Amino acid sequence: MNRRWAGLLLISPALFVIGIFFLVPLVLSVVSSLQAKGGSWTLAHFEKSFELYSTDMLFTVAIVLLSSALIAVVAIAIAGYLTLGEHERTRYLLRWLYRWPLFIPFIVTGQVMRTFLAKNGMLNHVLIGGGLIEPLAAQSLLDWRGIVIAFVWKQAPFVTLLLAGAMASIDVQHTEAARNLGAPRWRVLLGIVLPQVRGTLLVGVVLSFVTMLSVLSVPLMINPNSPTMMTVDVAYRISSHGDYAVANALCLISLVFASLGAWVYLRHAVKRVGGT
Amino acid sequence: MRPDPFVRLTRLTLLTAPLLAAALAVPAAAQTLNVVTAGDQNMVDYVNNFLGPRFEKMNPGVSVKAVGTGPGDAGSQKIYEKLSAQSKAGNAAWDIDVAVIHQRGAATMVKESLLAPYRNQIAAGKLVTRDTATNALGTNVDGFVIPMFHSQIALAYNPDLVKAPPKNFSEIEAWVRANPKQFGYNGVKGGMSGVGFVMGYVSANSGLAKTLEEGPYDAGKKAAIDKSLAGLKEFNKFIVLTPGNAGTLDMLNRGEITMGPVWVDMFYTWQADGKLSPKLKLALPEPGLPGQPMYYVVPAKAANAAIARKFIEFAASPDIQAEGIVKQFNWYPGIDAQHVRAKLDAKSWDKLFTDIKPDTLERFGRPFPLSDYFTDILEGYERVVLK
Fold first, then answer.
1. pLDDT digits (tens, 9 = 90+) for A23-57
2. Alpha carbons A16 and A22: distance in angstroms, whole number
3. How do residues B239-265 score in pLDDT, each as one tens digit?
4. Does B127 touch chain A (CB under 8 A)?
5. Any alpha helices (H) in chain A, and if so which ranges?
6. How far apart are CA B330 and CA B321, in angstroms?
7. Interface contacts A/B by beta carbons within 8 Å
């Protein structure tokens, strides 16, 4: 057996799996979203998608962008403290604590948030018990805010993990030089550390962006009513109407959003490979 | 000489592939009755914990295996897709022996000849009297189905805060305006109790109640439907949207809302389990809210059709309907109530009718609209109410 054939053979199972389980369904999705009942070509399914779900599309993009931004802020704050913090015990505790949500599935997150953020849920009980808000001022957070909170809670540790690793590998001399010249820690973080790890931050945030776009369980459990995220609409078209055509059209629109993320990711990845 | 590591790895991959394929293939067992059920987890529990063991004891060598496909019409849709695929593939024996499905699913499957007519071959078939045994949302399903149970949507409310529950939809409307954000339902994307409420609202306010239930279908009625939905859009400003069937019950229990549509069986089961305040009560307003049966069906080419019929015969017998369906799971019986009532003590029977009396149920327990109207109302809701 010659080496070239062996190589091709070795990757063939992977190619086969990608072909059968990804490319073929993708092509079928495209076809189904463009085909009318009789088999002729039509844009009606896309028209219907925009007619019924344009609000949800905007809502989805807004939720995911806002969550991504908040995730970045939280991740920078935690990773920054892990790298530059001076109180050893706090750093240890934080390092131990922040990873927990990584091991909790989205659906469990949704379930937990559902009772935590409800009007008479645990959060409001604590706030009322602590005298921070009046009982009458308590409101349910089970709307877009609930989804954002769940996403940030679940995804921020992932980005933090990447970011803290990248920050740890920066030469200590850089930060120490800045500290010696009198820079406060926040300036060291924003001016010295962050610029050196912004590539990692971008990758982490983009991966989170794409993941959040595809999550069904969290919006379904927290706020399946209008406006809601596109994943809920896709599930609804299939389960209540058996309407795969519009569901596929919605999926393709969602794929366009995700590809924007992929484009940013690839552009960055290529630049980095080219640079080294 | 030892071969190149590349080649060795390739050989290894090729060798392990059949093993992997073998592990993925399902081993064929001789006497396994495959029951696939749509609906919530309680449906799977019912078959696995209640029906299965009893049936296995009576039929040594048979093992009953139940799988759930998920709540709502989505669950039935999955069963439909599986049977449809096996039919299109030309398989001689299908691997679902008994399915438990909703009305919309049954209508589709009967139309596409995926089910076997079996009702007249079993004794329990004669005990079935309600019109849902012959008519599923306008489709004739006579002979293909036996209702497993009936379930009903009703208004749950907190009697401490609502002294007299609304008797009809205009009283609901008035109450909601007087008590903003105290009424909650789960829209159309969060489960059937919300869908049922929307159907009830349109029936009550469009003047089309009879047409929606009995047909004939007329696409021209969309305007009237949309008009009543415009009223619902206004109504929605005064209410809270809840996350799902269970979400409405949770919010009632936590006191975040005082009134909302729920499934009667879930309501009683939650109360029995201590998940819902025992103070809450039910009411069924005029001209009614929808309810629906779940059906036992046998696929047209079920591999074990004979045992499947025996299983349904057993499941639809008055004893099992009394002990399992009514007493343990709080559903209304699927077969004629008189046969079931005779098997039960008065207390267990009355528990079903504590808040909603049998005559109220008879008058205001409505079927869901015909499939086409059902779709029109759901899409109208998205177009008119959600925009």
1. 999 999 999 999 988 888 999 999 999 999 999 99
2. 10
3. 999 988 888 999 999 999 999 999 998
4. no
5. 3-18, 24-34, 44-84, 88-98, 106-116, 122-129, 144-168, 172-180, 185-187, 194-213, 217-222, 230-241, 244-275
6. 11
7. 97
Angle at A202 between CA A196 and CA A204, to 5 degrees: 110
Where in chain B are the domains?
A: 32-150+292-353, 151-291+365-385
Q: Looking at beta carbons, which residues of chain B come within 8 Å of A247?
A: none
Same fold, B32-150+292-353 and B151-291+365-385: yes
Which A residues 83-112 touch B at CB under 8 Å? none
Q: In chain A, what residues touch B186 (CB-CB under 8 Å)?
A: 224-225
Strand partners, B146: B296
pLDDT tens-digit series, residues A70-106: 999 999 999 999 998 888 899 999 999 999 999 999 9
Both structure tokens of A269: 């990845």
Q: With beta carbons under 8 A apart, name residues in chain A contacting B190.
A: 220, 224-225
What are the tens digits of pLDDT across the range B20-29? 555 554 444 4
Residue B1 in this model has a pLDDT that exceeds 90: no
Please tell me the distance in Å from B349's CA to the nearest CA on chain A. Answer: 34
**How close does chain B come to A83, measured CA to CA in Å?**
41
Q: What is the ipTM of this complex?
A: 0.73
Domain count, chain A: 2
State whether B6 and A7 contact (CB < 8 Å): yes
Best residue in B9, B195, B382, B385 to probe A by mutation, most A CBs within 10 Å?
B382
Alpha carbons B57 and B280: distance in angstroms, whole number = 39
Q: Domain of A126: which CATH number?
A: 1.10.3720.10
Between positions 351 and 380 of B, the ones with CB within 8 A of A are 375, 378-379
- Tell me, yes or no, whether A39 lies in a domain: no
Of A10, A52, A235, the CB nearest to B13: A10
For residue B360, how far is the Cα from the chain centroid? 21
The three-state secondary structure class of A108 is helix
- The pLDDT, as a whole number, for residue B29 is 46
Contact between chains at A140 and B74 (C-beta distance less than 8 A) = no
B151-291+365-385 CATH: 3.40.190.10
Chain A residues whose CB is inside 8 A of the B243 CB are 114, 142, 220-225
Examine the domain organization and report whether A18 and A91 are in the same domain: no
| CATH level 3 topology of B32-150+292-353 | D-Maltodextrin-Binding Protein; domain 2 (3.40.190)
- Expressed as residue numbers, the domain containing A119 is 44-275
pLDDT tens for A145-201 read 999 999 999 999 999 999 999 999 998 898 889 989 988 988 999 999 999 998 899
Q: Chain B residue closest to A50 (CA)?
A: B383
